[in-house]
Design goal:
Layout (H helix, E strand, L loop, with lengths): L1 H19 L5 H15 L12 H34 L14 H70 L3 H76 L6 H40 L2 H12 L2 H12 L8 H19 L8 H24 L2 H62 L13
Helix pairs in contact: 2-6, 2-11, 3-6, 3-11, 4-5, 4-10, 4-11, 5-6, 5-9, 5-11, 6-11, 7-8, 9-10
């Protein structure tokens, strides 16, 4: 027993070490379910047919078709366990003392299934949610950087325009004044474009921070909600194992009290738990099936549905970052401002040094315009497809279409076997064990003890 206890402790420590560094197991957990759900999932409705309610009803019915199987089986099994728990069989006379070996094996299998589903959910599901949250946070940081650069660009354009306005007001040379007025118009265009970009960029960090905050708030409840049926099942298995252990250890116990406890558990714990697990498995299959259907052609589905429901600016931005073709609509104001800055630098270079423009002022204007050009270069680097597309790939392709589907798939499988097979078998075997134990104890109490003064039979 001591060696067995040491072995279990070592296995537990090893499992905890693997849980802390579970990246090795992620590819093995993800690949099977991604392929299975992609094969089983029905075709996702196209944007052209999505306007029809019949199309969505058909798609929902196809997803619900297989998803209803665990719920129906769970209802039948839960009703069977409930009926058996309400029935009271008479104790069988002459029954031999029961053995708990098979019961222990079933209990251990149920515990392993509950722990396996929880491990898959924690190692794959929590990892995926954490990675998605991190990527959204990194995107929010980049958006803040772009917003700050937009503010810097707007301020540089304003300072340069203010300097030129002062020079134009104080200039008496007609020819130079015309050049400065032309520069004023160009810088006004730069200032307007910069202000427009600053306003647009300032909204991005708020939206991304809200998305990350929502993910962080929901992830704990989502993981707990998905794992709750497995946790309840694990507690049921541990309680049954404890009652069996105490019955075997306490030789004076008749087992009737424990039998009543198990029957009560069958009515109020086992049957509801089986039904809850079956319903949870059905919901998990529906989610995995719908997500797998969408992920069959995820890029195409994202583009077509964005074009169908959003159109215009949102579609153009989405299409640019997914396909990498065309111009980035987010940087339209920046491109126009950059073109105007190039014209402004040429105009400043063409204005002669004189009473209207001395060398120090000209150098200052050039520095302000060059700073604005550098700022635009930094904005273009952050907003480039090479920098933004990995966020989309990680969140959509890797986390939603791989991690989410696989974690729900493994959890669904473990909960199905646990709720439809192991828990009912465990409830029936535990009930039978305590019945046999009670019958054996009754037979031993009713058997008369031999008189020490009389010879034993057969001697």
């Amino acid at each position: 027993r001591r060696d067995s206890h040491v072995a279990w402790c070592c296995s537990f420590r090893h499992a905890m070490a693997l849980h802390r560094n579970s990246s090795w197991v992620v590819p093995y957990l993800e690949s099977p379910w991604v392929n299975v759900m992609a094969a089983l999932a029905p075709p996702f409705p196209s944007p052209e047919s999505s306007a029809s309610g019949a199309t969505w009803r058909k798609f929902t019915a196809e997803c619900v078709g297989f998803a209803s199987v665990p719920a129906v089986l769970g209802l039948i099994v839960a009703a069977s366990v409930l009926v058996r728990s309400c029935m009271r069989k008479p104790a069988r006379s002459g029954s031999a003392p029961p053995r708990a070996k098979a019961l222990r094996y079933v209990s251990r299998i149920a515990v392993l299934l509950a722990l396996g589903g929880a491990f898959a959910l924690l190692s794959v599901g929590r990892h995926g949610i954490h990675m998605a949250s991190e990527k959204v946070g990194e995107a929010a940081d980049d958006a803040r950087s772009v917003a700050d650069l937009g503010t810097t660009l707007s301020l540089s354009a304003k300072h340069a325009a203010h300097t030129v306005d002062v020079m134009t007001a104080n200039c008496t040379d007609t020819d130079v004044q015309k050049q400065l007025q032309g520069l004023q118009g160009v810088l006004a265009s730069v200032a307007n474009r910069s202000k427009s970009f600053e306003t647009s960029a300032a909204r991005l960090p708020h939206h991304l921070d809200s998305a990350r905050s929502t993910v962080d708030k929901v992830k704990g409840l989502a993981i707990l909600g998905l794992a709750l049926p497995s946790i309840v099942s694990l507690l049921c298995c541990l309680l049954v194992a404890y009652l069996v252990r105490m019955t075997q250890k306490n030789r004076s116990s008749s087992g009737c009290c424990n039998s009543c406890i198990v029957r009560t558990m069958g009515m109020f714990i086992f049957a509801p738990t089986i039904l809850i697990i079956a319903l949870a498995t059905s919901c998990e299959y529906f989610l995995a099936s719908a997500t797998g259907s969408f992920c069959k052609g995820v890029d195409t589905n994202v583009l077509t549905y964005t074009h169908h429901f959003a159109r215009g600016f949102t579609y153009n931005v989405t299409s640019f970052y997914i396909t990498g073709k065309g111009n980035n609509p987010l940087l339209a104001d920046v491109r126009d401002a950059n073109s105007s800055l190039a014209d402004a630098l040429d105009l400043v270079a063409g204005i002669p040094i004189g009473t209207c423009l001395d060398q120090g002022v000209k150098t200052g204007v050039n520095q302000q315009l060059s700073k604005a050009v550098d700022t635009i270069g930094a904005v273009e680097r952050i907003a480039s497809p090479a920098h933004i597309y990995p966020y989309y790939t990680t969140v959509v392709h890797e986390e939603v279409c791989a991690t989410f589907v696989s974690s729900v798939g493994w959890l669904m499988l473990s909960q199905f076997v646990l709720g439809i097979v192991c828990l009912p078998v465990l409830a029936c075997m535990a009930d039978a064990f305590f019945e046999l134990h009670a019958a054996a104890r009754t037979r031993m109490r009713d058997q008369p003890e031999p008189c020490p003064c009389e010879p034993l039979t057969g001697v």
